[in-house]
Structure formats: C-alpha cells, structure tokens
Amino acid sequence: KRVTGHGMAGRSAAGGARTKFLAGLGERLGHLARSRPQVVLIDDIDLALLPALDGLLQLVRSMASEPILFVFGLDASVRSPRLDAVRALAEVVELQPLSSNESVQLAASLLGNGKAAQAVGARLWKETGGSPGAMVEWLHGFVNAGLVEKSTRGWRLVVDADEVAEGHLDLPVSVLERIRPKLDGLDLGDRSVAEALAVYGHEAEIEVL
After folding, report:
1. Pairing state of beta strands 38-42 and 68-72?
2. How far apart are CA 91 and CA 86, in angstroms?
3. pTM for the complete prediction?
4. Burial of 135 per CB tally in 10 Å (0-12, 13-18, 19+)
5. Where is mean pLDDT largest: 63-67, 109-113, 151-155?
6. What Rg do the C-alpha atoms of the chain give, in angstroms?
7. Could you say which of 8, 18, 40, 160 has the lowest number of CB atoms within 10 Å?
8. What 3-state class would DSSP assign to 62?
9. Rounded CA gap, 67 and 62, in Å?
10. Nearest to 104 by CA among 165, 172, 178
11. In this structure, is the dihedral angle defined by the CA atoms of residues 119, 124, 130 and 135, taken in order, positive or negative?
12. What is the pLDDT of residue 12?
C-alpha cells in the first residue's frame, strides 16, 4: 500500500507540474500572439507519451481564438485515439517521399552541383527511402562525423565520393534516437527478428520477413 501511495503521489505531482507548465506556456504564447501571429512547430508527436498528447490537445483548444498556427509532424501510419483527436482538429497534409532526383537536389543545395552531391544524394535516398526528415538527420550526421565540413566557399565533402556512395556509414545518433522508441515497443518475437537483421549484413526482402 505504501508503494502504491508513493506511485499515486508521484503521478499527482507530475500531473500538477504538467498543468502548471501548460498554463505558463499558454500564457506566454497568448502574450506573443497579441503582438504578432505565431507558428508553433512540434515534430514526431506519434512518439509522444499519452500525457504529452493530452497536454498538446489542451493547449491547442485553449489557444483556438488566438492567431497561432500549430504544425504537428507525425508518421501517417501510426494510429491511436489521441492522434485521431489531433487530426480532427487539424487540416491534414500528407507529405510524399522525395524521389532520387530530389534527394540529389537536396544534397546539391548544401554541397553544390557535382559528383559529391550525386553521391551524397544517392546514399541519402538509399538509407531513408526519401523521408525528408530522415535525410536532414543523415546530413547532420555527415557533418558531425566530419565527412562534410564548412569551407570559405560553403560546405564541402572531405572524403571520396565513392566511399560515401558505397562504403560503410555509421547510423547517426539522432536517427538512432528516433528509431529506439519504436524498437522498445516491439514484442519479444519481433525484437528477435530485428536483432537477427541487425547482424545479417544484407538487405532483406519483405517476403523473407
């Protein structure tokens, strides 16, 4: 009983802190919106815990009369009652993956046209399937790993383009952090399959999975 009591007290304290935070955030947003319209962008809400989603819904509803645009990013394939409630309040825009050519254009916007952009763009598309958010995370990973550096004329690839196109690249930490919550949600059987694929060393066909 004592353990249960502590747990309930902890949840109550957390709920009180969350309510206080939302009230303060709403007050601040309302103050800013009175001087100029505001845009609030929150990505990956499909990874949020239920209390956080409830808080977002509460915030959006409380700000309905203010000139504030809320933009939420989420995986369209993920469904839940809370996410459906968010969708019901919003105008839904589904973004399509980038093509391989568009991926090269994205790389060229950073590196300029040339072999480097071709190699980086092709590798980005191969690793992400055209997901714009994932591509940006991979580009950040290239910079953090020292593969792309700032120069006096902009950004440049400092390793051989062929190495980027075909060589081994470590998964960027930010990408791993996005994947980990989804892996944590797998049951034992699915997790065993994921662990086997991690050391398989080759691409696996959907039929095999």
Report:
1. parallel
2. 10
3. 0.57
4. buried
5. 63-67
6. 22
7. 8
8. helix
9. 12
10. 165
11. negative
12. 58
Tokens of 129: 């399937």
| CA dist., res. 127 & res. 141, Å (int) | 12
């892996």: which residue's tokens?
Answer: 183
Q: Which amino acid is at 18?
A: R
What does the pLDDT average to over 77-100?
A: 87
Work out the average pLDDT over 62-88: 89
**Burial 169-192, CB ≥16 within 10 A → b, else e:** eeebeebeebeeeeeeeeeeeeee
Closest CA to 172 of 197, 137, 202: 137
pLDDT tier at 1, thresholds 50, 70, 90? very low
**Residue 97 DSSP one-character state:** P
Q: What is the pLDDT of residue 96?
A: 85
HSE (side-chain half, CA atoms, 13 Å) at 170: 11
Phi, psi of 164 (to 5 degrees): -70, -40
Q: Indicate the pairing of strand 154-157 with strand 148-151.
A: antiparallel
| Placement of tokens 């949600």 in the chain | 185
Per-residue pLDDT tens for 187-207?
A: 888 888 888 887 877 776 766
Tokens of 131: 């997901």
For residue 81, give both structure tokens: 């009652």
pLDDT confidence band for 2 (50 / 70 / 90):
very low
Give the distance from CA 134 to its chain's centroid: 7
